[in-house]
Batch of 4 targets.
Target 1
Amino acid sequence: MQGWPFGLYDSGADSLYALCLLTRTLRRVSTHTAIDKKNNLPAASRGEIPVDGVRAAPFWLKAAMWAGRGLIVAPPLVFLAVFFLIPFVFALKISFSEASLSIPPFSALWQTVVGGGGHLVLHLKNYRYLLTDGVYAISYLYSLKTAFFATLACLALGYPMAYAMARAKKSTQSILLLIIILPFWTSFLLRVYALEGVIRDNGLLNTVLLWLHVIDQPLKIMRTTLAVYLGIVYSYLPFMVLPLYATLEKLDMTLLEAASDLGSRPWRAFVDVTLPLSMPGVIAGSMLVFIPAIGEYVIPALLGGPDNLMIGRVLWDEFFSNHDWPVAAAVSVAFLVVLAGPLALYQHARIKQLEH
Amino acid sequence: MTRRVSPFLMTVFGIGVAFLYIPMLVLIAYSFNASALASVWGGFSTNWYVALAHNTQILHAARLSLLIAVIASTLALVLGTLAAIALVRFARFRGRLLLTGMVHAPLVMPEIITGITQLLLFVSMLQLFGWPHRGMLTIVLSHVAFCTAYVAITVQARLQSADVALEDAAMDLGARPLEAFWDITLPIIRPALVSSWLLSFTLSLDDLVISTFVSGPRASTLPMIIYAKVKLGVSPDVNALATLIIAAVGACVLIAAVMARRADKHTQPAA
C-alpha cells in the first residue's frame, strides 16, 4: 500500500483506519480463503507467468475489452461530473447574476429584448463585494486561524494518547482502540450537542465546580471562542489519534533502546527518534482535523458566540437569512479557486516525492 | 522487551478518554431524567423514550434518513468501486485526471460549498428541464456524490495492495475477465467494500449541512430535525434519541470487534 497514511489524499481513507484496523484480520482471512478456493490452479500465481504470446488477444476481444472499460469508467465519471463538477459551473454562472425577489432568487444572465434577440448581462459586483466588503476575507482568515489552533490543541492532546496506546500491551491495544473508535462512529451532531450539556452555564462542569467551591459564579463557556475550540477538539480528536496511533504502532522500539544505550535521555530520544519517525501520522492527523474544521458550520453555530464568524456560518446566513444566492455562489467559486491552487501544488509535490 | 507506559502518558490518555466520554455519559443520564430541566435531577424515568416512540415527526424523519442512507450508500458502493477499479487497473484512459480530481476533491471541499453548489445545480436543472424537484431524490443524489469519493478512496487503497497476478493467472487459465473479477478480485476487496459501505451509511445518516441545502420543504432528515430542536435549547427527547443511537453504534462496533477477534483466532490458533 503506497505510503498510506502518509499524505493528504490517503488521509481520506485514513479516516477509515478505525474500521480497517478492526477488519484487518477479517481481511486477512478472506484473502486467504480467496486464494485457497483457487488453490487447485495457482501455478501461474506462483510466478510462472506465461509468455506474452499466450495473452495476445484477437481484435474483437480487444474491442470488447475497450467497451468493457468504458462501462467501468463512464458511470462514476459521468455521475461525479454531473453532481460534483457541473454544480460549480452553475455556481459560476449564478455568481454573475444579481439577487432578485423572484424564484429562484437571482436574475437571468440572458435578458430578452422585446421584439426578439437579447443581451447578456454579467454582474461583477458579487466579486467586487467579496473583495471590498471585508466580512468574507476576515471570516475566512478567522476560520484558518481557528482551525490551525484547534489542530494544534488536538495534536497536543492526541499525540500522548496515541503514544500511550502504541506503548500499551498488544492485548490492551485493541481495547484502547475500541474506546477511540466508538466516538468516531457516533453522530457528529449529537456529540456536539452532548458537549453542550457539559459546558452549559448550568451544565455538569459548572455544577461540579460550584459544588466543590472552586468557583462561586458559573463559568461562561458557551457562546465563547473557548467553546468553539473545545467543540472542534472534542469532535475531531479521534481523527487525530487514529493515524498517529497507526504510525506510532509501527515504530521500531529497538531504535529507542539503541538511543538510550548510546546515552540519550528519554526526552532527547523522543525528540530525535520518535517524533521525526511519526511525522507522517502527525501530518495525516493534522490534515484530517484542519481541513474539515475550516468549513465547520455546526460547531460555531451551536457552541459559538456572535463573534465566532467562521466562513461556514457566514455563508449559511448569507444563504438562508439574506437570501443572497449570487454572493454565496461567488464565494463557492472563490473557494474552489483558493483550494484548487494549494491542492494542485500538493499533488504535484507528492508525485515528485513518489518518483524519488 | 519490557513495555512501560509512563504515568504521564497514561494520565493524558485518561484525560482524553474522559473528555470524549463524559459528555456522552451525561447525555445518557439526562435521557433518564424525569425533569425536563437540564439542571435538576427529577428522578429516574423512561418518559422521554415513551414520548419519542409517539413523536411521529422524529419517526418519519428517522425512516427517511435510514432509507436515504441505504440507497445512497449502496449506489455509492457501486460507483465508487467502479472508480477505484478504473483508477487502479487502467493505467491510461480519457478522463483519468478528471476522475482522480473528482474522487479526491469532495474530501477536502467544505460541505457547505458542496451543498450550495448542488442546490444551485438542482435549481437550475428544475428551471431547464422541470426536474428534479427538491426532496428525497436530490438528497440521495448529493449523498451518493460524496459517498462515492469515500468508497473510491478506500477500495482503491485495498485494490492497490491486491496482487494483479492472481487475476492474470485466472484469466490465463481461461476465466473471462468478469469471472476473474467475481471470483478473485471481489473476495479480496470485500472487507474494503463492507467498511466503505458502513462509512457511507454513517456519513449519509449523519449529514446535516448538505441535506439542509438540497432538501425541499417536505423532506426533513433526522439530523435536520435534531438540529432544529437542539438549536432551541435542551430537548429531553433528543437525549433519548441520542442514547438509542449511541447504544446502536456501540453494539455494532463491539460486534465488529468480536468478529475481528474470532477471525484472528482462526488464523493464528496458537499465537
Target 2
Amino acid sequence: MTKHTYFLRFCCLMAGSLIMLSGCGGASDTPEMGYVTGTIKMDGKPLKNALVTFRPQDHETARQSVGTTDEEGFYELKYSLRETGVMLGKHQVTISTAGMESGEYGADGEGSGETGEKVPAQYNVNSELTAVVEPGSQTIDFLDLTSEGEIVEQDDSEGY
Amino acid sequence: MFRRTKKGFTLIELLVVIAIIAVLVALLLPAVQQAREAARRSSCKNNLKQIGLALHNYHDTYKSLPANFWRHSRPDDPNTTNNYWSGSGSVEAYGWHVSLLPYLDQAPLFNQLDVNGYHLDKTLAGENPNLTPQQAQTLLQSRLSVMMCPSDSNEGIAHRNRHFGGGQGTNAGGLGNWRPGITNYISNRGTRDQPQSRNDTHGAFFHNSSVKFRDFIDGTSNTFVVGERETPNCRSGSWVGVRNPRGSGGRGIWYVTAHARALINSPVASWSANKGCGEGFASMHTGGAQFLFGDGSVHFISENIDSNPLDRGPNGRAAWAIFTPGDDRWSWFSVYQRLARRNDGFPTGDF
C-alpha cells in the first residue's frame, strides 16, 4: 500500500505545482480598477447618446474612462475597447452630447450626422461634477441635471 | 480460486491520472490560443516592418515621405496649396499607401492604375482611356496581405462605413456605392482631430505633405509614423485613399490616417466626440497596439501609456486650440501625444 501512497503523493504534488505554475505570466500594467454603471437624467428625463467621461484627478495624465448613455440614460464606464472599468480614486466627471454620432446608418452606410451640445457648460466645459470610485462594482447616478445654463460648443477649429 | 494480483491500476490511480490530464489540457488550451494570437501578432508586426522599409526606400528615392493623400491643383488654378480645401468636397484622392505600392512588390498594380497619370477621381470617372471605372474598381478592391493584420477580423474589404459612394469621380463613373480595399495600417497625422485644419502639420503625414526625416526634430526613434486600426469597432481603413478629404467624421480623412487625441484602443465607438477609435489607433491585440516608428522599428505601445487628451480648455476650446508655438503649455502634452508629434521638443523617456 505504501507504493500507492507515494504515487498519490507524487500525483498531488505534480497537480499542485501545475496549478501554481498557471499563476505565472500574464503580468499587466493595467491599474487596479473599479466598475461603474449608472443613469443620467436631465430635467427628470433620461439623457440619451451622451458621453460620460471620468477623468482621474490624482494623476492628470492617467487614462480616462468613458461611457455612452442609451435610451434609458444608462451608461457603463469602459477603460478600453475590450476592458470595462475605471481607475480608482477621485474623478472629474463631464457629460456632453457634442459631436456624438447619432442615429442609424442609412442605405449608404453613413451615420445620420453628429449631435450638437445639449448639456450646459456646468456639466462639461466647466464641470464641477466629481465622483469617487472604489474597488468593486458600484452605481453612480447623476439624476438632477438641469438644462438651465449656458451651452458652450467646443470650438477648436483653429490653432496648432 | 480467487487470487488477488497486482496487475492493472486501482480506481483511485486512474482518477488521479485523469484529473492530471484534465489540468494539463486546461492549462494548455488557453496557451495554444495565445500562441496562435502571438503568431498573428508577429506577422502583423512584420507587415508594419515591411511598410517601414517601403517608407525608407520611398524616402531614398524622393527625399521625403509620401503625402498623406494628395490631389494637386488644377492646371488653371495657380494656388497650389489651398485649392484642395476650397470648392466642393467629395473629391476622391489617393492615399500614402498607394505611393508605397512599388516598394511593396505591387508595382504592377501601381502601373495598371497609372497613379502618376491620373488622379483617383479622374480614374474613377473613366478619364483614363486604358482603364474603365469598373476595371479600376476591381483593382482598387485587391486584397493586399501586407496591408492586413492577421489578428483583425474583417471581410477582406473595407468596412461599409469606409465606402466610396457619393464621391465626384464615383458619381461620374457610375460606380454607385462601392467599398475599396482594406488596410489595418494607418498613418499618424499628429494630435488634431479637425480634418479641415491646415495647421496640424506636427504629425508625420498631412495633406499634400512631403515630410523629410530631417523634419523629425524629436528624432525618428521618438516619433511614430504608422499604427494599427482594427475593424469590428473602429472600421479600420482603406489603402486606396480618402473619399472626401474635407468631410467631418467618418466622411473625412480617417480612411488613411489617425490622430493621437483619441486614446489607444479608445472605447468610444466610431468617431464620436473626436475621441472615437474610428479616427484613432486601435488593435485586436490585448492591451495596446503596435506602432512603426520613423527609424523603422516597431514597438507595442500599451494602452496604459500616459496620455492626456486635453480636450477641454478655457471657454470650451480644445486646449491646444489656444496654444501658439513656443507656449510652455505644450508641455501639457503627455507621452503618447509627444510620440505623435515630431517637433514638440519635449523628451519622451521610456514608454
Target 3
Amino acid sequence: MLRFALRRLLIMIPIAVIVTFLVYAMVFALPGDPIRALSGQKPLAESVIAAKRAYYHLNDPLFVQYLHFMGNLLKGDLGQTFDGQDIGEQLALRWPVTLQLGLTALAIQLVLGLVSGVYAGWRRDGLVDRALLGATLGVLAVPGLVAMFFAQSFFAVELSWFPVSGATDGWPGSYLLPATVLGVLGFAGLARVTRTSIAEVASADFVRTARAKGLAPNRILWGHVLRNAMLPVITYIGLDLAGILGGAIITEGIYNLNGIGQFMFRSIAMKEGGVVVTLSTVLLLGYMLVNLVVDLLYGLLDPRVRHV
Amino acid sequence: MNRPMAAEPLLDVRDLSVEFDTRAGRLRAVDFVSWTLHRGRTLVILGESGSGKSVSTQAITGILDSPPGHVTGGQALFDGMDLLTLTERARRGVVGSRISLVFQDALSALNPVHTVGRQIAELYRVHRGTSRSDAMKRAAEMLDRVGIPGARGRVHDYPHQFSGGMRQRVMIAMALALGPEVLIADEPTTALDVTVQAQILELLAEIQADTDMGVVLITHDLAVAAEIADDLVVMYAGRVVESGATADVLGDPQHPYTQGLLQSVPSAERRGQDLPAIPGTPPDLMRLPSGCPFRPRCPHAHDRCVTERPALQPAPGELRFGACHLLDQPLSPEGAAR
C-alpha cells in the first residue's frame, strides 16, 4: 500500500508541472498588455512601464517567466496583485469562506445522496427507489442559477429564514442556504450513481455466495455489497468536487460571500493575469490532491488495484 | 412410490416447481422435480443449460433471485423440516452450515475485496460466534485441508491472487467449513481445465469418504457424471426425464434423451465415423411443445407423445424412474415407428 501511495504521488509531479505550465501559457497568450491596461486612459511614462515590466519579468521568454513564477510559488510567495496587495494574504482571508461553503454543501450532498442511493439500490424498484428516480429527475431538470435565485428570494427575502446575502452571520447561519442549494443540486447525480452501483453489486455472484453462507441481509449489505459498490461512487465524488468548486464561484456571487470565487471573478474582470494564474494553479493543485486521495481510497478499498 | 432402501433419506425433494416472471410472461423453469439424496452418496443432476438443474437447488436453499423466481409447489425435506416453508431466519440456520453450496466460477463467487481467510472465517463468526483470531486459525486449517500449500500465509491473500483451481479449493474450503451434511456443487469444475477438474473431483470424493456427507453435483458433462455419480437424475426442459442408480441409467438408458446423450459421447471404437448428435435444439420454455417436451427431437415420437405428457413412472430396475411413453410399450425396432 505504501508503494502504491508513493507511485501515485510521483506520477502527480509531472502532471502538476505540465498543467500549471499550460495554464500559465494560456494566460500569457491572452491579448492586451497588462501594464498598459493598468494605467487606463492616461498613458504611463516609458521609464515607469519599463521598470514595471522588469519587476514582473514581462520581458523574459515565456518559459523563464514560468520558472520565476513556479520558483516563487514553491517558496510560498504567491506574488502581488497589480495594485500591490499580497495574493497570499488575500487567499488566506478568502479560503475559509469558500471552504466552509464547499464543505457544508459537500456534507449535505453526501448525506442525502448516499443514504437515499444506498436504500433505493438495496430495495430496487421499491417505493423509495421510484420516488428517488422522480425526485432526482426534477432536481436535474432545474438549472442551478434558477434554483439559487429562487431559494434566495423565497427562503431569505420572503420567509426571512436565512440572511439574504453576505457572510456576517458566520457559519452556519450565512452558509446554510447557499450550501443547501448547492448540496441538493449535487445530490441527484450522486444518489443515482450510488443507487445503480448498489443495485448492480447486489446481483453479483459473490452476493449470492453470501446468501448461501446463511448471512443476514444487513450483514450482506454492510459486509459485502457496500464496499464493492463504493468504488464508482468515490470516483464520482472526486470528479464532483470540481463541480462544487465551480458552483461555489457562482454561489458566492449570488449570495455575496467573499471567497475565492469572488476573488477569481473580480480578477478576470480586471484582467489580473497573475492572480488568475495563481488562483487556477492553487485550485488545480487542490483538485489533483483530491484525485490523489481518491486514488488512495480506491487502493484501500480494492486490493486488485493495489496489486497491479 | 415405494422406497426399498432402508436408510432414511438425507434430503428428499418432492414435486418441486419453480416459475419465473419474465417480460413475455410466466415460465416454468422447474416442473414437478423429485429426487432423493442419501448419506454418503453422490447424486448428479445432469442436463444442458436451461434444463432447470441449478434453479432447483437454488430454490431449495432459498438463494433464488426472487423476484423474478417463485417456488410454486413441492417440498424439500431435510431432518424433518420442509426447507421451502421455513422462515427466512430458520433457513439461515441451515443453509451455510448444514447445507452448503459451491458455485461454478470461484473468481466471481468470492468477494474480491476481502481476503479468503476473512470470507471463510465469517462462517465461524456468524454461525458459531467464534472469536476473530480463532476463526482465522480455523480458516487456515480448512485451506490446509483442501490442499492449498502454505495455507497459514495464504489466508491473508485475496481471491485474485489464486489460480483457478486453487480458487475453487478455497470455495470448497468455505463450503466445508462448518461440516455440512449436504454439499451442493453447481458445476464446480466447468470453469477449470481437465487436469484441475480431475483434482477437484478427487478432492470432493476424498472429503466425502471422510465425512459421510451427501453430495449433489450439478453438471452438463456426462463424463463427470459417469465418474463420480452414485445416483443420476437427468433433466430436460425443467423436468426429470430419467433417474436411478448411475450404472443402471448409463448401462440401460430408458429415455430417448439419455440414449441420445450416450450415443453422442466420442469413443475409440467409432473413430473416423461421424459423431451422432441429438437433432434440433432444446425447447424455449415459453413455448413448450404439446405433450412431451422432447418430442420434436425424439426418433421414437408417436401420436400419443403429441397429446399426452409422459409422467415420471417406475422403470425396470430398482428405484428407477423414467418419463416416456415407451416405458408402457417396450422399445423395439418395429414399435419405434411412428
Target 4
Amino acid sequence: MIPVADPTLEKELRRQQSTLRSLGSGVIAFGLWAALKPLLIMLLAPDEDVGASLATLTVPELLLALLIVAVFMMIVMSFRLWLGLSARAEGLGKRKGSLYMIAAYIAFAVQTVLFLLALLYLPNHDFTEESILDMFASLVVEGTSMCITGELAFAARKVKRLKKRLGEV
Amino acid sequence: MQKDFHYHATYCAARIAGWSHGDSMEICYSAQLVDLCSRTFLARVKGPGSAATTQLQLELMEARTDLPGLQDITRIWASFHFLPYDLGAEVRKASRHYRNKYRLICKPNGALVKETVELARGRGTQAAGIAMHILADTWAHSGFAGTPSLVINNTGPHFYELLSDPERERPVRFRHSPGAPDDLEQGIYSNSVYQPSENTIMNLGHGRAGHLPDYSFARYRYLPAWGEYEEILKDNPREYYLAFCQMVYAMQILRGGEEEFKLSTYATEAAAPWESEIRAILNRRQLDACADWKALGEKIAGCELEDFDLQKYEEAYRSAAPEDKDHTFLGRFFLAAMAQKSMVTNRIFRSGSLLAGFSVDFGEKGFRGIGDYRKLLAFIREERDK
C-alpha cells in the first residue's frame, strides 16, 4: 500500500490517540481500586464467614493467606498499570507493540464473563437493604471498568489500523 | 501582539498611509495604550473605570470568575484583544452555552473589524489607534477567544514549532515560569498553568499557547480545543505582513477617504517599497523587535522617534477642568474605548449571548445612563448635533 497523507485520517488518528490516553488513565485508576477494594472490605466490612474461617488459622498460616492476597492484588494492579501506561504511551505517539492490545482484549473477555456471571447470580443473592446498595454499586463499578477495558482494546486497534494506513509502504 | 508591532509598526503603517508625523505618533501611542489602560492606570489618572481596555496580571489574579466577573473580563478582552469573528457561527451538536463561547473566537476579517474601523471614522487619532490595535490583534490572536474557557482556549501536547535554516520541526516545550524569558534556542516557552476548571483565568485568550501568537517570527502547528482534532497552522510572518498592509489600508480610509472599509483588502502596493525590510524584521527570531521597527520608522519618517512614555499625557488629563477633560488626549482615548466596548458588547448581546452581559441602548430609552457611560452619550449627542 502506498503511504496515505490524508488530513481526515490524521485527524481521526489524533482523536483515537486522545481517547487512548484518557482510557489508559481510567484503566490505571480502576486497577488501583481493584487492588484497594479487598483490603478495604477486610478492614471495614469483613465477611463473618470469612472471618470465622480465618480465626481457625495459626499466625503463620494467616500471614501466608495475607501474603497470597497481597501478591494477587499486586499482580492485578501491575497488569492494569502496564496496560494503562502502554495505552497512554501509544496515545502520546510512541511506538508500541500489539501485546498490550491483545492483553486488553483478553482482560475485557474475562471481565465480561465475570460480570455476566455476577448478573446471573443475582437472583440467588440474599438481599438485605444494605446489600442491595452494595451489589448495585459493585455492578456499576465493575461494569464501568469492563467498558473502559473494552473501549481501550477497540481504540488501540483503531490506532494501529490508522497508523498502518498512514505509514505503510 | 507586542509593543514592537502596536507602537512602532503602527507608526510605520500610519506614515505609509499618509498621516503626518504628529498624527502618526498619536495613533501609535493610542494603539500601544490599549495594552496598558487598566483600572490601575485609570485609578491613578482618575479616569472612568469603564474605559479599561486591558487587565494587568495582578488584576486578573484578583478578578472574580462568577457570572458578573466573567462578563466583565469578556467585555474587555473580546472588545479590544480578541474581536469575535462570526457572532452567528453555527456549531454541530453543541449546547447553546458552548455555541456562544465558540462564537467569540477571534479571526481576522470578521464583520466586527469593519464596524470597529467605521466606528473610528472621524473620531480622531485616538480612536484610529484603538482600531489599529484591535485589527492587528485579530491576526495575531486568531483561534482564541477573549473569555475564560477551557473548551475553547486550551491546547495540548500536540504543539510543534516550524523552523527554517534548515527546515525542520520541533516539539514546543512549555513551562510555567512567567518571570523567565522564553528560550528561543531550546524552544522553551512559558504558558499558563493547565487547570481543568472551565472558567479559570488560566484559560483566558492565548495563555495556554504562551507568547507564541505574539512573536512575529513564529510558525507553529497545534490542536486548539475547539478544533475537533483539526490541526491549525499558524504562519505569523505571513499573517503579520497582511496585518500591516491591512492597517495601512484602514488608515488610508480613516485619513479622509469617502470609501467604505472593505474586509480582506490590503494596501500591498503602498507597503511594497518597504516590503523586504518589513519581512526581514518579521522573520528575525528575537523576543523584541522594537529596535528594528523603530529604525524602519525613522527611515520612513526621516526623523527620530520618541519611545513610548505612559505618563506623557497624564498630567494634562489630571489638571484639566472637569468640563475640559473629554477634550484632552486621554479624555478622547477613554471616550473612544468606551464607544468600542459598548459596540462590541451590544453585538454580542444581540447575538443571543450573555457572555458579555446585558447591553441596553440608554440613549434611545431616555435614561440618563449609568456612571461613566453618561459622558459617552453626551459625546455622541454632541457629535450628532454638529
